[in-house]
Amino acid sequence: MIRLISKILPIIVAIAFIFPTITKAEKMLSNREDVFAFVQAAYQAQLSLGEKPRTVEEIDKILSPYFTEEAKRIFLEENLFSENSLYITYGTDFPFYYIPYFSFTDETKLVSHENEKYFFEFFPEMDEGPVSYESHYEGLLLTVSDGG
Fold first, then answer.
1. Disulfide-capable partner of 71 in 63, 67, 101, 122 (CB 3.0 to 4.6 Å)?
2. C-beta atoms surrounding 76 within 10 Å
3. How far apart are the C-alpha atoms of 17 and 14, rounded to whole Å?
4. Which of 88, 104, 99 is nearest to 142 (CA)?
5. pLDDT in tens for each of the 148 residues of the chain?
6. What's the pTM?
7. Facing residues of 140 across strands?
8. How far is 89 from 40, CA to CA, in rounded Å?
9. Helices in the chain by DSSP H: which ranges?
10. 3-class state of residue 130 by DSSP
């Protein structure tokens, strides 16, 4: 009897941990505030890769909750540098494939359509400082993939 319980108990505990996670994932982006929090967390995940050198596995674990495999691959090919068998991203004035620096205000627009959310903002012309650019829109397309 004790053998049976010792074999079944880990399965029950595992199921208990899986189901709350699934419920959270389904409801995670149900409103504007949830989308803002998700995008901000994804941006912070990208920035955190410049804090210290990490293994590829650590980097994948940091980015996986927010990015598809294709998005991770493109971002890392452009921004990841090797340093003593570990990897790091460096800061730049021209960050390719980083999430834009959204204001997360009423100026940040969100349009939902089926399993996609379009997240965008207008950036007025900037001609001061080391970086200048013309007025333009920047945005993200958030899609449901593999249950997340």
1. 67
2. 18
3. 5
4. 99
5. 455 344 444 444 343 333 333 333 344 677 889 999 999 999 999 999 999 999 999 999 999 999 999 999 999 999 999 989 999 999 877 789 999 989 999 999 999 988 889 989 999 998 887 778 899 999 999 888 776 6
6. 0.74
7. 119
8. 18
9. 2-27, 32-48, 56-63, 69-79
10. coil
